[in-house]
Amino acid sequence: MELLWKSSHISGGNATYVEDLYETYLKDPNAVPEEWRGYFDSLPRVNGNALQDVPHSTVRDRFAQIGKMRVRTEATVQQDSKATEYERKQVRVVQLISTYRQRGHQKAKLDPLGLAERQHIPDLELAFHELSTADFDTVFQTGSLHIGKADATLGEIVDAMERTYCNTVGAEFMHIVATEERHWIMQRMESVRCAPDYGDEVRRKLLRRLIKAEGLEKSLGSKYPGTKRFGLEGGESLIPMLSEMVQRSGGYGAKEIVIGMAHRGRLNVLVNVFGKKPSELFDEFEGKVTYTSSGDVKYHQGFSSNVMTEGGECHLALAFNPSHLEIVSPVVEGSVRARQDRRLDPQGNTVVPIVLHGDAAFAGQGVVMETFQMSQTRGYRTGGTIHVVLNNQIGFTTSRRADARSTEYCTDIAKMVQAPIFHVNADDPEAVLFVTQLAVDYRNEFTKDVVLDLVCYRRRGHNEADEPSTTQPLMYEKIKHHPTTRDLYAQRLIASGVITAEEDEYLVEELRASLDRDQPMVKSLVHEPNSSMFVDWEPYLGHNWDIECDTSIPIKRLQELGAQINQSPEGVPLQRQVNRILTDRRKMAAGSMEINWGFAETMAYATLLQEDYPIRLTGQDVGRGTFSHRHAVLHNQKDGSIYIPLQKISKEQPVFEIYDSLLSEEAVLAFEYGYATTAPKGLVIWEAQFGDFANGAQVVIDQFITSGEHKWNRVCGLTLLLPHGYEGQGPEHSSARLERFLQLCAEHNIQVCVPTTPAQVYHMLRRQAIRPLRTPLIVMSPKSLLRHKQAVSTIEDLASGCFQNVLPETDDLDSDKVRRVVLCSGKVYYDLRDARRDRGIDDIALVRMEQLYPFPEPDLFRILQQYPNLKDAIWCQEEPMNQGAWYSSQHHMRRVLFRHKPEVYLHYVGRDAAAAPAAGYMALHLEQQERLINAALAAD
């Protein structure tokens, strides 16, 4: 393009020449010079049509636009003449403006301490563009530059660019493909040079917020010296930033804002943004709290309140989170999506997510990428998230950029979704206010993610017990003498006459007095919140896990519904095997064919929807099912459109959402956890592609699903379907790591089930939704049993049955003759039964543990009582001895056996202890499987 500018003239008298060139190009692109070919290739298309379809009028209009960027010194220029010196400089000025937009952020004054090394940017030098200070008085056309006039001197242009892009705001937005978004940002920034002329009252309000932020930290520091609090000192501008976000979002009509953040500044945010009473915080430091559960440290706790904004009352929720960095981000997104769904708000206008990040974590944690990747997908989008990076420029003790990341900025990951990034110096509160308003407006305008990088520092160590100068001596020597943000801004306002020194001192004393009087720091706090903004969790609290639950349904209604949802939709040609599946399912509904897993599962969803229970089902292959058993989403074979029968049950039915997720476990499962903690009614289900892959989300399982209720009193009814079973497919496609879940079981925190029949999965899913208990359900779901000829049920089993925690012997054995009972779980039951039948054994009973936790001791005892002559008991599992249910469940089984027959000892049969979950060789797998079956059925 540069060659093009140097060698061609595309306005005025050259228009005819250019059109002739273009005509030649349309016939043969190679017949025109390369620089012209490249230019014509870059011309816009019309309505997406090919270049050859672009009318000459479009080309002429484009030439006319570019021609306006020229100041002609001659009325007509011959086609072979060279551009004048002035014209060349005009082009260079345009290039200079573009460079400032592209790279001005690299020259910006972002570090309050002035320690960050910035590389020299030659592109931003006048000489690079063949310009000099001698041209400062020359008038050029400003083109797309938004400075209020069409012509300006080079000096004015450079001054505008320096103030806009190289001062205390550094903007990255030129990577955005959408022209409309880029120009919107340019206009907003350039028109005010990133420094709006705020009124005195706005400036005073900014100062008061900084005084509150600094004052709380000083108060905590003096009251509780050396106690961990992860203070905000050095980043106090976060408080006016968040306060403005809340107010401005509320002005746009937001009714709820969900905020996620890690430790740094959390206590300050609770008091100065959410309105938590200072005395409540002080009581937590002093241990004056009532413990109703195991609890968590104060900088992990969530909170909620209501504040008044220009747009009305707005509910604020701060998400609970553990120390695992960034994992709260997708949890927030899930909670926001549930709230938006409840409000019937697909655009995300009424509920806004705000997530705060640390700079090192933002760059280092993979879940950040996963969360960004979700942001515009159908199943997970929330209308744009406002990301705030509290950039201390140090990660614990790692401050060298060469050690902390491979990118220039910690925020570069956000470019993958073309999010604009606004870096801002935290010691310039007015710049902070400006970019905050800009971010909220961008999110409201384009419903996309936006990132604010608040470049600050950490006045103390990682926590208040650390000595930071040990590892960062130069930084902390500078910090020791660096004034606080509040002090700097107060001096600025005093110098400009906005306040006097006496007024500043009065405001500081007023804050101290307010803390002493225990007054809420948030003036807009609503003391009697609108209760309609809250979800009523009361019906779901205080229930035992064995609460009675009727999951039966009249058989006639069941059959009618089964026929309805398995009808081939008119005018939707389906793939041949799918048509066959629907035909078979109609036979199952009629009772003329035994029921398989896919029919039972979809019927569980259908009946729940008919009974007004909403359902959300996500995972990597959930529409079809990884093992091609579900087929809840039907695909038109002609046009690729989809049809979902479970969404067509009735006009009044609740929502049925089913989404094939992105290839993620951690962020997606965290999202669904957040969703389930906000939506108590119905079912929220995540299915792993293979149960083994759930270990990619172990943080979510450990820190939220299994412990969230006891740490934070957060009730959650999330269901996990984890395909599990030893089919000889190797160590990564066999085990959902049952042992890990059982090891995490305590205090009735989760349910762990291993259903082995279609009727069992039907009643299990219905039970999870219908009974008011909201406890996570972990299902070791099958693979080969999905089509196993013996793993079938009848329509009557669905209509009149219920979920059985323990399934008794099903063959007609003489209970008096039974000398051994084999307790087992999952697919191995069918292998044992087949072998027993083949060998004619009639004195060994097979009992299936369908629920392993909470362990159903009374149910197992009732079944064992049928065998008065029992001599022997075995636990048989497919998993290695150090895995599966053996170590976590044997004491339960032994206790029941002792109660029935004290002399009967429980033995283990299964694979030997192993490091890997399963064998990778089919021959070895079969050998191991045969060995354990033989051992379980062997004679004494």
Automatic annotation (TrEMBL):
Keyword NADP attached: no
Key words of the record: Oxidoreductase, Thiamine pyrophosphate
Listed GO MF terms: oxoglutarate dehydrogenase (succinyl-transferring) activity
Names of required cofactors: thiamine diphosphate
SMART domains assigned: Transket_pyr (SM00861)
InterPro entries from the UniProt entry: 2-oxogl_dehyd_N (IPR032106), 2oxoglutarate_DH_E1 (IPR011603), DH_E1 (IPR001017), KGD_C_sf (IPR042179), ODO-1/KGD_C (IPR031717), THDP-binding (IPR029061), Transketolase-like_Pyr-bd (IPR005475)
Pfam families noted in UniProt: 2-oxogl_dehyd_N, E1_dh, OxoGdeHyase_C, Transket_pyr
E.C. designation(s): 1.2.4.2
tRNA processing recorded as keyword: no
Domain Transketolase-like pyrimidine-binding: 595-788
Described function: E1 component of the 2-oxoglutarate dehydrogenase (OGDH) complex which catalyzes the decarboxylation of 2-oxoglutarate, the first step in the conversion of 2-oxoglutarate to succinyl-CoA and CO(2).
UniProt family annotation: Belongs to the alpha-ketoglutarate dehydrogenase family.
Protein name in the entry: oxoglutarate dehydrogenase (succinyl-transferring)
Taxonomic path: Bacteria, Pseudomonadati, Pseudomonadota, Gammaproteobacteria, Cellvibrionales
